[in-house]
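In the current project phase, our protein records have gained a structure token line. A sample record follows, to show the layout:
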Amino acid sequence: MLRMSLSLVASFLLVFIIGKHLIKFFKAKGLVQYIYELGPDHESKQGTPSMGGFMFIIVSVLISFLLHKGTYNLNFDFTIILTLFCLLCSAIGFVDDYTKAKQKRNLGLTAKQKLIGQSLIAVLFSIYCYFQPNIGSKILIPFTAIFFDLGIFYIPIMSFVIIFIVNSANIQDGMDGLLSSVSVVGFISWAIVILSLLQMNALLNNYDLAMSYQNVAIFSIAIAGGCLGFLRYNYYPAKVFMGDTGSMFLGAASVGIAMIIKMPLLLLFVFVTPIISSLSVIIQRVYFKATKGKRIFKMSPIHHHFEKSGYSETQVIMMYAVFTTILSVLAIFSIYGFTTSIF
């Protein structure tokens, strides 16, 4: 628990302290948002520094490795591969953000270019998990002690899930403080889930694996602390945006942790609001085409529907944070009943 507390507090304080300096740097280099056209009346946000995700990315990675315990044996320790996976996904977002800033427009990489890069990373990480003896192709069914074996289909299914979750995080990042707020709750929840497994002795017979899970929990709580510090600058009215650099990192981290602990179905609880955001976009487009111009929502993603319905950004964020908290508590309770034979 000491390492967990240190990770949370250190990440929060470091991001809180370095944030204002990085914002000045982004402005000086012209790394700003030139056109912000996702939501109603958001034109005033043009010129806000982007790529703020670097704040919590650098800090969370640094803190998690400083507090890492045990060896870096890849047979047991997932931290290196998980971090690399998150950074590669973030790199795609960085190229997109950088292209937008330098070309002074809201168009960076094409959707096809991003999809190709994400697909390659997703397949490689899914293959790693599939062949990693301490992960494999079995996934836990929430509220049971039952694992369902996807077999070889684990690779294509989880590759799709990765792409969907990473882009869902990106879609949700369309309102000041929204994604960072739900991420604080989400990554604290992942850490609690892992600690609950350890306290229930679900990993009692494998010390190295238990230590690896602790390190993943440290990584998760470091991200939560970093996002909490980032909120100081990202909460409405935002002084900086996390950009695709940050949102894709957060999406990758959440799905990566879920896969490592064999619980991707818990994403439906812990990462519920980004998933809803993506689904609202899909539903809106399908309905629009099917009805030749009619819409279900006033605007998609659905958080903009709430804006157009009269809710302020702050109200929407609070609603999303509370909803995520409730579902995350359910996710934590869903794992109880484990025995030492499960892992």
